[in-house]
Every structure is written in C-alpha cells, then in structure tokens.
C-alpha cells in the first residue's frame, strides 16, 4: 500500500526503482553480448519509440482512467505524417493539372460538410427538430454520393498518371511534430463524441476508430500507395550509409532518449501540479469533482488529446526509423496490446515505471523468438522429431505471444499495480 509523504514518513530511498533500473541495464548488456551492437541498438531505438507511446497511454489510463484501445490508429496517423512530410516531392503529380483538380474536389468536401452542419442548426430558425434531422440526413446522403463520385474520379486519375501525390520533401522531424498535432486533432474530435461514454464503451469506440483509420490509409492508394508501401523514409539524422549501422542507430537512439527525457520532465511537473491533482481527483471521484466546480469534460478532453499527441509523435518516430510506411503493418497486437502490456507491467500512472516497462516488455518481445528458436534447435539435436526445420521459425515466432501472455498473467497475479505502482501523495 502506498504511504503518504509527511514529516512522520520521510521520503524513502528509491530502492525498488534503482534495483529495476540496474536489472534492466544488465538485461540490455546481455542482449548486446548475445546479439551484437547493431541488432541491440536497433532494439533499443524501437523500445524508446514504444516508451513514448506507453507514456501517452499511461497519462490517459493512469492519470484519468481512460481506457484507449485504439492506440494503433494514432500510431498510424503519426507514421502517415512522417511519410507525407519527409518523402521527396512527386514531380509527376505537381507538374500536372491534378493538384488543382484535387484541391477543387476537397473544396467540394468542405462545402458539403458546411451545408450538413448548417442543416443541423435549422431548428434555431423555428423548424421542428424531427424535420431538421430528416433534412440533415437526406442532405448528407445526397451530398456524400455527389462528392465521393467527384473525389473518386480525381483520385483514380492521380493513381493512373502519377501513382500517388508523394511527399513534401521536408525534414523528418517536421513530420513528427505534425504527426503529433494530427493525432491530437483527431483525438480532440473523438473526445467530443466518446468521452461521455463509460470506460468499456470508450474502449470499444476507440478500437473501432483505429480500424477505420487503418482502413482509410490502406485503401487510399492515391495518398499512401496503400499496400504497395512507401520506402525508404528519410531519417532526421545521417543514415547507415553515411555513418554505419551502429553509429547511425546510436545517434537516432540519442534523439529518442532526449525526447523521452523532455516528455518525462514535463509530465512529472504536470502530475505534481494543480492540473495533475485535478485530473486524478476526477479519475477517483468524478461526481465530487464536478460538485466542487471542476470542468470535468474539459479536463478529460485535455488529457485524452495530450495522450494522443504523444502517440502520434511516437508513431512518427517509429515509422521513420523502420524507413517504411505500410498501412497493413499497423496491427492491434503490435501497436495496441503490446503498449497496454508495457503500461500494466510498469505501473499505470507512474512515468518511470512506464518507461522501464516499455523497454523490458519490448526486450522480452524481441528476444522471445531467437531464444525459442535456439531451444527448439537444441531439442531437435537431442532427437525431438516434433521440432522440424520447416516449423521451427514459425513456432519460434509464436513464442512471442505465449511469453507475453504468460508475463501479463504473472504480473496481474503478483503485481496487479505494476512493478512501480503510482505514488499517491496526500496533501493536508
């Protein structure tokens, strides 16, 4: 049980935190010794990107009790932004009349949305609400059919003549910033609709929205090349061709570590400020907070948008590092469930615990396959006919899910609040 910090209970030495950090360092050094510097550095960069995603989720779930099951969608938005801003300009598109046609089609879309929105306000002119709703629905259906037909003609022309619209040729870090802003904007829109729902319905809604985002990116060949993928994506640092794999990845790792340090500092300050205390008060007792004059919906929307921004930034950094944008590659298992496991293991609401949990879980996730493969080869050499050469690789890959499932079961059984539970401070 968490003890309050007071004069009678002085601040303790962070023995558990130091012990976990040392154990994690030993584990990482073991991976370096076993797998080599290039492989291990890549693993740490990806783990750092996942740590940013996990920090975004822990402030939603840990700070405010919002269960977001659609992390994958915001990761995909960040990756899309990183691709769009960093990929070189497609001259075949911009040197034609296609940009003007696309701009006109998008203008029709905006106009249609404005007309439907205006129809929903007709009751202010004295129309009955049922008639207003009927007019808005009919208008929305008709305008959708008209606009989607115009848009399909333009996008089909783009695909046939230019492939896709291409990028903007800007530095990768610009796409990271815009990716966070795009994810936050979509989170703001979702929050207005879904934050009034209870936690289980919020999880279902965010899960569905994530699948919608993935489906849109996957089927918009004119915008993302769809299943054809876009690669290579530029890095914000010199690449392996200039510095070598180890040095280039180390430099990328340094950038992600600095990002985590800045995010950690800001979140720590916010958590211990009046804003953080208000968020936790709303999480623990929403009715009492509202009775004390707190704007519950506004605060919940703020924390949801902030978490989405971090997910967008983390997704952009991860996509840039992998140097490929593949809408099919965003999977609920890898980009939602795995992040949930990181937060659960580290401790929802504890920023340091979330970072440790992210690195530890990703290390286990990556190393499960080679270790399982080595074990199967050992058993095969000892005469185990069940482990055949054709099945070894696929069965070793499946060991990831088995190990993560076992890990989450053990954590929920023996440390339900995580390795580093949230520290609750009582203020007189």
| Structure annotation, total helices | 17
Query: Which regions have little confidence, pLDDT < 50, spanning 5+ residues?
Result: 4-8
Mean pLDDT: 88
Quaternary status: single chain
Account of the protein in words:
This protein has about 425 residues and is mostly helical. Helix content is about 75%, strand content about 0%. The chain has helices at about 15-35, 35-65, 70-85, 90-95, 100-120, 130-160, 170-195, 200-220, 220-225, 240-245, 245-270, 275-285, 285-290, 295-320, 330-345, 350-380, 390-415. Helix 1 (about 15-35) packs parallel to helix 16 (about 350-380), helix 3 packs antiparallel against helix 7 and helix 3 crosses helix 14 (about 295-320). The longest helix is centred in the middle third of the chain and has 33 residues, at about 130-160. The chain is globular and about 75 Å long.
Distinctive features:
428 residues, mainly alpha, 17 helices, 0% strand, globular
In short:
The chain has 428 residues and is an all-alpha fold. It has helices at 15-35, 37-64, 71-86, 91-94, 98-119, 129-161, 172-194, 199-219, 221-224, 240-243, 245-272, 274-284, 286-291, 296-322, 332-346, 351-381, 389-414.
Break the fold down into its secondary structure elements and pairings:
Layout (H helix, E strand, L loop, with lengths): L14 H21 L1 H28 L6 H16 L4 H4 L3 H22 L9 H33 L10 H23 L4 H21 L1 H4 L15 H4 L1 H28 L1 H11 L1 H6 L4 H27 L9 H15 L4 H31 L7 H26 L14
Helix pairs in contact: 1-2, 1-16, 2-11, 2-14, 2-15, 2-16, 3-7, 3-8, 3-14, 5-6, 7-14, 15-16, 15-17, 16-17
């Amino acid at each position: 049980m968490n003890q309050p910090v007071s004069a009678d209970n002085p601040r303790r030495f962070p023995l558990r935190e130091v012990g976990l950090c040392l154990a994690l360092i030993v584990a990482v050094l073991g991976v370096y010794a076993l797998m080599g510097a290039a492989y291990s550095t890549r693993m740490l960069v990806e783990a750092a990107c996942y740590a940013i995603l996990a920090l975004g989720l822990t402030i939603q779930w840990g700070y405010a009790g919002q269960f977001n099951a659609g992390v994958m969608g915001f990761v995909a938005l960040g990756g899309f932004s990183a691709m769009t801003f960093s990929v070189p300009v497609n001259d075949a598109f911009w040197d034609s009349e296609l940009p003007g046609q696309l701009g006109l089609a998008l203008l029709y879309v905006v106009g249609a949305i404005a007309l439907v929105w205006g129809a929903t306000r007709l009751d202010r002119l004295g129309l009955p609400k049922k008639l207003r709703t009927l007019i808005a629905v009919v208008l929305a259906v008709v305008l959708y059919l008209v606009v989607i037909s115009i848009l399909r003609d333009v996008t089909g022309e783009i695909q046939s003549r230019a492939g896709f619209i291409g990028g903007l040729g800007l530095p990768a870090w610009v796409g990271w910033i815009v990716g966070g802003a795009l994810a936050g904007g979509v989170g703001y829109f979702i929050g207005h609709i879904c934050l009034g729902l209870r936690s289980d319905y919020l999880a279902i809604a965010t899960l569905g929205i994530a699948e919608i985002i993935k489906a849109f990116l996957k089927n918009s060949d004119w915008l993302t090349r769809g299943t054809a993928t876009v690669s290579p994506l530029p890095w914000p640092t010199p690449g392996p061709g200039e510095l070598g794999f180890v040095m280039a990845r180390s430099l990328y790792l340094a950038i992600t570590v600095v990002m985590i340090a800045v995010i950690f500092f800001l979140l720590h300050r916010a958590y211990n400020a009046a804003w953080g205390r208000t968020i936790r008060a709303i999480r623990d007792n929403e009715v009492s907070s509202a009775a004390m004059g707190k704007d519950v919906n506004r605060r919940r929307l703020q924390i949801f948008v902030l978490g989405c921004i971090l997910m967008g930034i983390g997704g952009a950094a991860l996509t840039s590092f992998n140097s490929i944008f593949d809408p099919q590659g965003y999977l609920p298992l890898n980009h939602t469930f795995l992040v949930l496991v990181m937060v659960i293991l580290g401790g929802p609401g504890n920023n340091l615990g979330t970072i440790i949990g992210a690195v530890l879980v990703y290390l286990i996730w990556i190393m499960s396959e080679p270790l399982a493969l080595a074990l199967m080869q050992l058993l095969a050499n000892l005469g185990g006919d069940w482990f055949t050469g054709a099945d070894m690789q696929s069965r070793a890959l499946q060991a990831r899910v088995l190990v993560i499932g076992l890990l989450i079961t053990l954590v929920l059984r023996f440390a339900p609040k995580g390795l580093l539970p949230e520290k609750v401070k009582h203020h007189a």
